[in-house]
Amino acid sequence: MSEKDKQLEQYRVKDEGKALTTNQGLKMAEDEFSLKAGERGPTLMEDFHFREKMTHFDHERIPERIVHARGFAAHGEFELYESLAPYTKAGFLQDPGTKTPVFVRFSTVAGSRGSAETVRDARGFATKFYTQEGNYDLVGNNIPVFFIQDAIKFPDLIHAVKPEPHNEMPQAASAHDTFWDFVANNQESAHMVMWAMSDRAIPRSFRMMEGFGVHTFRFVNEEGRSHFVKFHWKPVLGVHSLVWDEAQKISGKDPDFHRRDLWEAIERGDYPEYELAVQLLTEEDEFRFDFDILDPTKLWPEEEVPVKRIGKMTLNRNVDNVFAETEQVAFHPGHVVPGIDFSNDPLLQGRLFSYTDTQLSRLGGSNFHELPINRPVCPFHNNQRDGIARHTINRGQVSYHNNSLAGNTPSTTPEREGGYSHYQEKIDARKVRARSESFKDHFSQAALFWNSMSEPEQQHMIDAFSFELGKVMSSSVREQVVAMFAQVSPELATPVAERIGVDAPPAGQPASTKQSPALSQANTTHSPHGRKVGVIAGPQFDDAAVLPVLDALRAAGVQVEVIAERLGEIAGTGGKALEVDHTFLTADSVLFDALYAAGGEDESGKLARQASMLLGEAYGHCKPIAASSSGKDWLGPHAPANGPGVVAGEGGEGLADAFKEAVAAHRFWTRD
C-alpha cells in the first residue's frame, strides 16, 4: 500500500452492518417518515433529521468543471528509470527505482458531465504526483499543442466551442457555426485544429492515448542551471484510434465506453502503463529553431529534439468513490516541486491564475487542498486559517509571519535545504499588451502535421473537415475556413471545398514540406495485448477447433467475450462449454477490436443473419476478423473470406497465430 493509500485509509468508511445515524453521530429510530403534526398533517420545522438529510441531498452536486467536466480517474505509481540530477533537483526524479504514488484523471474538454465519451475532442491527461516534497501536477492533454497562444483568449475559445447560447446545441461537439467562425478569425488555431480533425481526437481508449504537458517548462538543477523541458506520456500499448462512424455509434451503444474500458482493465489486473518522456533544451538553444519554443501552438519535432524516456507509470487501482476522488480532485499547473519551474509561455502564465480561481468556485472555498484526494503525503504547515470546509484544527495563538511568540514558526526553508525558489531569469523589457513576432507563423507546423500523416490518416482528416463544416450553416464561415486551410495544404482544402459546396481555393504552395514521422499512428507500437475480441458462437460449436484459439488469444493478453443468442452456457461438440457474455441485443461490433466467427448449430438461419450483420460492420470499419468451422459460412459479400485482415481456417494454433497478428495490426485500411 502506497503512502497516499495509507493516508486515505482513515477516510474510507464502509456503512454496511452499521447503525444509521445523523452526521453528528445520533442514532435514529426512524428513516421512513418525516416528523408531522398528525399522520396526515404538515411536516414540522423541528424535524432536524429530515432537514439534514434533505439539505445534504440538495447540495450533493458541486458545480461541474466548465471544461473537462466528463472525466474518469485511477490511482497508480510512477517508477523512475534513471536519475535526472544533471537537469533537475526534483526529489522524485533523483534515484532510479523510486516509486511515487500518482492519481490520473482523463477527460473530454467540450462536453458536460453527462455527455458521451467517444466524441471528437481533445482529451485531458492530468497526473498528480504525491511526492515527499509536495504535490506535483502535470496537467496535460492528449494533443501536444493548443488552439490559442495567450490565456486571455481562453474564454473566447470555450464560448465558441460550447453549445451555442441561443439554443444550447450541439452538446460535446465542435461541428457548428460559432466554433468554426472562431477558427477562421483566430488563425493561430490552425495547428491544433489539424490534430482535432485527425484520428488523435477519437482515441480507442485511455490506455492507448498519448499525453503531453503542452507547455514549455523548466528543469533547474542543484547548481541553478536551467533546461527547457517538454513532457510526454507514451502508452506502452501504442497510440490507436477509432474510426468516425464507429465513434458515433459507440456514443449511442455505450456512452461510458472509455471509462468502462479503463475500469475493467484495472479490475482484471491488466494495468495500463505509460512511459514518461522528456525533451530537453539548453537555454543556449532557445532561438535555434524555425519556431518559438515558448509558443503553445507549436511542438518540438522528435526528430529535432529527441525524446528521452525516464520512467514508467502504472495505473493499478480504481477509485473507491467517483465523487470523492475523481470529481473533487483539484489539479493546477502551479503545483510544482523544487527543480520544476515555468517558462514565459503566455498560455501557461494565465493558467497559473485560472486553476486556483476555478477551484474556489467548484470546491466551495480556499480549503480544497484539505480534501483527502488533494492532500499531500508530506506534512504542510502555514499561517492560513479558517474558511469553508476547514478540516485542520490549528492549535496555538499565532497565525502570522514574522512573529516572536512562536519563535517565528512556521519558518521558511533556505533553497539550499530544499525550499522552493523561482529561477532567476533576467528580464529587461517594457510593459506592453503585445505578442512576439516569432509567434506569428500559424501554418508551418499545421502543414508539418499534414505531411507526416499516412494516406489513410489524411483521408480521415478530409472526411472530418467535411463532416464538421457540413454542419456549419453559414456559407461565409465555410468559405473562410477553406481559404484558411488552403494555406496549410491545397491537397486538404480542395476536396473539402468540393464536399461542402464552396469554391475551391486557388492553387498554391503548402506552408511547409517538412515531415515528422513520429506524429503518425502508422509508426506506433502494435500488439494484440489489451484488445477485446468478440466470439460469435452457437450450440455445438467445434470446441476442438475453437478453444485453442481462445486460449492463445488470452495468453497474448486479449480480452475474449462470447456473443450468442441467449445468456448462460453453450456446449461444444466435444462437451466443453463456453460462458456467454453478451446476446445480440447487448453486443455490437463497434464495442470490440475484432470478431471471431466460431460457428455452431443454426437450424433457423437466425444466428447466421445476426452474425453476418456484426461481421459486415466490423469489416466496414477495417477490423480484423477470423472464422473457423461453420463460422466460415457466416462470411459473405460484406465480409469476404479472402478480404484483407480476414483469417479463415480450421481453427487451432495456425488460425490463432494468424489472428493474433491481425489483431495486433488494429486496422486494414486497404478495405477503404
UniProtKB/TrEMBL annotation:
Q: Which GO terms describe its molecular function?
A: catalase activity; heme binding; metal ion binding
Report the EC number(s), separated by commas if there are several. 1.11.1.6
Q: Which UniProt keywords apply?
A: Heme, Hydrogen peroxide, Iron, Metal-binding, Oxidoreductase, Peroxidase
Supply the Pfam families for this chain.
Catalase (PF00199), Catalase-rel (PF06628), Catalase_C (PF18011)
| Residues annotated as the enzyme's active site | 68, 141
Q: Which cofactor does it need?
A: heme
Query: What PANTHER family does the annotation carry?
Result: CATALASE, CATALASE-B
Report the GO terms under cellular component. Answer: cytosol
Function according to Swiss-Prot or TrEMBL? Decomposes hydrogen peroxide into water and oxygen; serves to protect cells from the toxic effects of hydrogen peroxide.
Name the SMART domains on file: Catalase (SM01060)
Tell me the segments the record calls region Disordered: 400-420, 504-529
Q: Which residues bind heme?
A: 65, 105, 154, 351, 355, 362
| Polar residues: compositionally biased ranges | 400-413, 510-527
What is the designated name of this protein? Answer: Catalase
Q: Which family does it belong to?
A: Belongs to the catalase family. HPII subfamily.
Top-level EC class, please? oxidoreductase
- Cross-link 3'-histidyl-3-tyrosine (His-Tyr) maps to which residues of the chain? 332-355
Reactions catalysed: 2 H2O2 = O2 + 2 H2O
Start and end of every Catalase core domain? 21-409
BP GO annotations? hydrogen peroxide catabolic process; response to oxidative stress
